[in-house]
Write a structure and sequence with these properties.
Layout (H helix, E strand, L loop, with lengths): L1 H4 L11 E5 L5 E4 L13 E8 L5 E2 L2 E3 L4 E3 L6 E5 L13 E3 L2 E3 L2 E9 L9
Antiparallel strand pairs: 1-10, 2-8, 3-7, 3-10, 4-9, 5-6, 5-8
């Protein structure tokens, strides 16, 4: 489905990462781009965040510069572009995982890179 939504080559995707958040768990404000200038696969163009569970309370994603809060809901996929067309980081995409206040929160996340991330081995 991602290949249809955004024309992407799976070789440019980082491996999916699963995260289980404990009660009170959060991830403070950060950018997903701007740190990989010398990495072999370049910077992170897109972020793909999939909620696998719906917490009873809290645990959403907050985009500070946009003043936008997205509720965590099982099956909801968030996709955002981390880079401007010239390759500079889009600082409007600074975001956090808000504290999980009650229930369970599990996510999957991956990023689309500028160059191939998955290197074929023989």
């Amino acid at each position: 489905r991602l290949q249809q939504l955004i024309k992407l080559d799976p070789d440019y995707l980082e491996s999916w990462q699963a995260t289980d958040y404990p009660t009170g768990g959060e991830f403070y404000y950060h950018m997903d781009s701007g740190y990989w200038d010398t990495h072999y696969s370049g910077d992170r163009i897109y972020t793909f965040l999939l909620y696998l569970t719906t917490p009873a309370k809290g645990g959403g994603t907050h985009f500070r510069a946009l003043d936008r809060k997205i509720k965590a809901k099982a099956g909801r996929l968030l996709v955002w572009n981390n880079l401007f067309p010239n390759g500079d980081s889009n600082h409007r995409m600074i975001h956090s995982s808000m504290p999980l206040l009650k229930g369970k929160k599990t996510t999957l996340v991956s990023w689309l890179r500028q160059k191939k991330f998955r290197i074929e081995t023989i």
